[in-house]
Write a structure and sequence with these properties.
Strand content: 5-15%
Structural class: alpha+beta
Strand order of the largest sheet: 7-6-10-9-8-11
Largest sheet: 6 strands, mixed
Helix content: 40-55%
Radius of gyration: 29 Å
Length: 566
């Protein structure tokens, strides 16, 4: 699908600019006959040729690679897995092929469907959250019962006043007084409910803010040149302030912004009433007390966490205008989304400071992307190194293109960055056979896996659990797992391919994207029925990769996704 759109766009754009094939080919640096083949989708384009065509025709390279279209098609396929959609007549035809055709022909309608589905899910989540809160919250439960009791009293009293004509003056005054008293009580309960919801205690956290930020970062390829330059500016501003990065950051925050850095135990903070200052900050084992101008760390925060959060705060306080400018994007339609994007970009800038692009890339290539070596060399956490590896997308100076996924022990996706051709589920669970879930069985150890998808694509997965140590004896350790993934073609550039026979079919584990999107009907690990049908053995959809498919044997052979990935 993507290549077909690329040829069409190149031809249309060339005509818009009034260029003949000969003129355009000369500017690009290829023959007119080769450009003709590209425009008729008979030759693929990538790398420097792709960039050169985009420059000559004034196009965004994403418009030629079809990255946006692929993401939109992936969203449509995930939408088709919704139980409501599955119950519709003809839902069995809503596979990848149908999604690709809709995106190719009517991209606007495809975007509208995805937007409506997100709004529907947001409202469903809000209703579910409020329903659960009504059931569990004692204040809400009692308030509703009080309202029902008072309404019943008002109704019965009003019926007496309306139906009994011979009430004496004293009785009528008594019943009127009951109406007035119960009305006042009902008004008080209603006002208390309104105050409760206005206070934010019933916050249902709309899902669209996070999704908008995801889309914003993914559309930018998770690479921000302005923030890379900002990291260099921060390094220059810190120069000469101390012997270590941490001491330089502490000195910078104190001298330039009047911020002190302190450590406290969890019981101290709880006793001091500080727990309400910034509950979200506790997930990072620190919070910034703006009133006191202090960055407070929990005692159990690691050195890597302290360095990162110091750098993040320095970015927000010293270079806030750059972050605000980068997060001022039309794809972010709410204040919540813009704030979340601002914080995400501050984390990116902190990473750019602590793991400078050129030096980190050079070290990564020399270490063959061994995360353990990089983690020790830069005194960073496993997750911080994985995040940085995903951002190495500077044109002409790229690292291995990695996807990133983070999940909790329940299997729920908490952070994602997909690759073209490797969609990562936005919500819920991916395939239970993925290495990221297997890593929970061996905490603290790196798990590698060569994964073969039903469409013939193969990816190297690298996963490991990450634990935030508890602050007290009573507190449970916070555990999640992170995973990197790259296409098989890049696997031998990493240390994780050593000892794997990449050419052997049996080396790869047959997996799928998620149970609802996987056609492997004989899989023993299936948790849900698939939304895609089996394809007769030997039948292959147009555009699907030929050869090299590692789908597994037996009943799985001949089962493919219903559309090519481009």
């Amino acid at each position: 699908m993507a290549r077909q759109l690329a040829g069409f766009r190149i031809r249309e754009r060339r005509r818009e600019r009034g260029l003949s094939q000969v003129e355009a080919a000369r500017a690009i640096g290829i023959s007119a006959s080769y450009l003709n083949l590209i425009e008729h989708n008979k030759r693929p384009i990538a790398g420097r040729l792709l960039q050169r065509i985009a420059e000559v025709l004034g196009l965004d390279s994403d418009a030629l690679t079809g990255a946006s279209e692929r993401r939109l098609a992936d969203d449509l396929v995930e939408l088709a897995a919704d139980p409501l959609v599955r119950s519709l007549p003809g839902a069995e035809a809503l596979g990848e092929r149908a999604a690709g055709e809709l995106v190719g022909r009517h991209a606007g309608w495809a975007q509208a469907l995805v937007a409506l589905h997100r709004a529907y899910r947001q409202q469903s989540d809000a209703v579910a959250a409020l329903s659960e809160q009504l059931q569990r919250d004692p204040f809400l439960r009692d308030a509703v019962h009080q309202m029902l009791t008072q309404i019943a009293t008002l109704r019965s009293t009003a019926e007496i006043l309306q139906s009994v004509d011979d009430l004496d003056a004293g009785s009528r005054r008594r019943f009127t007084g009951i109406v007035a008293e119960e009305s006042l009580r009902l008004s008080g309960v209603a006002q208390a409910l309104a105050d409760f919801f206005d206070s934010g205690q019933a916050d249902t956290r709309p899902v669209t803010a996070g999704e908008e930020v995801d889309d914003f970062i993914i559309e930018r390829g998770n690479h921000f040149a302005a923030l890379e330059a900002m990291g260099d500016d921060m390094a220059r501003a810190l120069a000469g302030r101390g012997d270590t990065v941490m001491s330089r950051l502490i000195d910078y925050l104190a001298s330039e912004h009047g911020v002190s850095v302190v450590s406290r135990s969890a019981p101290e903070l709880a006793d001091g009433g500080a727990a309400g200052l910034d509950r979200a900050g506790y997930r990072n084992l620190c919070f910034f007390d703006r009133a006191e101008r202090s960055l407070v760390f929990l005692d159990n925060a690691s050195i890597s966490t302290r360095r990162f959060q110091l750098a993040r705060l320095a970015a927000e306080l010293g270079w806030g205008e750059v972050l605000a400018r980068e997060s001022d994007d039309p794809r972010l339609t709410s204040d919540a989304a813009r704030l979340q994007a601002y914080r995400a970009l501050a984390s990116y800038a902190a990473s750019a400071l602590l793991l400078p692009y050129d030096r980190f890339l050079q070290d990564a290539m020399q270490a063959r992307y061994d995360v353990e070596i990089l983690r020790q060399r830069y005194d960073a956490s496993f997750e911080q190194v994985c995040h940085r590896l995903v951002t190495l997308r500077r044109p002409g100076r790229e690292g291995v293109p990695f996807a990133f996924l983070r999940a909790n022990p329940a299997g729920f996706t908490t952070k994602r960055f997909p690759l073209p051709g490797l969609p990562l589920t936005r919500h819920g669970h991916a395939c239970p056979l993925w290495a990221i879930y297997g890593s929970f069985q061996t905490p603290g150890r790196v798990v590698r896996q060569l994964a073969a998808f039903p469409d013939g694509s193969r990816y190297l997965f690298i996963a490991r659990t990450v634990t935030k140590q508890p602050a007290t004896f009573q507190e449970q350790p916070f555990l999640h797992a992170v995973m990197l993934a790259c296409e098989e073609i890049h696997a031998d550039r990493t240390v994780y391919a050593d000892g794997l026979d990449l050419a052997a079919r049996e080396t790869a584990t047959p997996v799928g994207p998620a149970c609802r999107l996987c056609p492997r009907s004989a899989c023993l690990h299936r948790a849900e029925a698939p939304i895609v049908a089996e394809r007769p053995a030997g039948e292959r959809p147009a555009g699907e990769r030929q050869g090299g498919s590692a789908q597994g044997g037996g009943a799985n052979e001949g089962v493919t996704l219903s559309a090519a990935r481009g």
